[in-house]
Every structure is written in structure tokens, then in C-alpha cells.
Amino acid sequence: MSAVAPTGRERRFEPSELLVSKTDPKGRITYANDVFVRVSGYTLPEIIGQPHNLIRHPQMPRGVFRLLWDSIGRGEEIFAFINNLAKNGDHYWVLAHVTPTRDRAGKIIGFHSNRRVPEPAAMTRVLPLYQRMLDEEKRHRKASEAADASARLLADTLTEQHLTYDQYIWSLIDPSTASRAEVA
């Protein structure tokens, strides 16, 4: 599939809806629910077997994906605010919850993600940090170096604030802890 140019238009879905997908250990899509298919604009045959980064928006910090893959690769769950790119170039923000799927012996055999509509207040607070991460990435020529630098900026920023990544994300999700997460 060819690269899609962003349109700048945002797609929306209902707060009561969940976008669900499953992948194999390499990140190739093995399942997508009807909401995922509708919002992404792809048909099920177009996405099954494709890498999940098919819907990666180019203005999404690579460092977030570095953290995501490192976390799920260690067998941990992770929550992250993600900007996705639909087939036609529209974008849609989600709060993703990604977990490893294990076989009976405990071996990771894939990943499962539920995504929902993020709270506008959380988005307002996370976007400045994401912009700083993107700015850092622009300073590097290689994608892997950009991802490393962006992830390092995220880690350093959270360390300065005495927050773990989970504490930061939960403070965005739960407004009662919002004062702890002013990291932009």
C-alpha cells in the first residue's frame, strides 16, 4: 500500500464505540472490528496481514511507538494517545490500550488493542509534549535515531517531573491528578 498524504481533516467516532484490533508478534493485523474498519476507511481484506503502522500518522512522535513496542515486548500493557491516519488521509485521535496476548505457556503470540475517544482536555495537555518530541525528531536524519531521541526526551521530561509514563498518562485520563502532569 502506498503512503497517504494527511488531509488535515479529523474523523470522529462515538465515545461509546471501541476500535479493536489484534496483531501477530510482528505487528501484522490479524483482526479488526467493524468500528476500526469504518473509522480507518480500509476494508477488512485491505488490512488483514498488513503491518499495524499502516495507519500511523506522520505527525505522531516515533518515540511514543518506541515506548509502546518496548513495553508490550516486555509483556506489559500500555496506554497511549495516538494519532492515526485513515485511508483517505483524514486523521483520528485515540486513547489506545495495548496488551500482549499469550498462549497457555505464557509466550507472547500477539497483541490486542482497544481504542476509544480521548478526552479533549487530555489532548490539550499531551499535544505540546508531542510537538516537542516531533521537533526533536526533526533534528535526526535516521528514523531509528529520531525515535531514540524522541523517547529519550519523553523519559527525561517525565524524570524531571518525578513521574513514570503510567503516572503521566493516568493523570491525563483522571483530571483529579492533572496538576502533576504539566510536562509540556
UniProtKB/TrEMBL annotation:
Transmembrane segments: none annotated. Pfam families: PAS_3. Residues 24-50 form the PAS domain. Coiled coil: none annotated. PROSITE patterns: PAS (PS50112). This is PAS domain-containing protein. The lineage of its organism: Bacteria, Bacillati, Actinomycetota, Actinomycetes, Micrococcales.
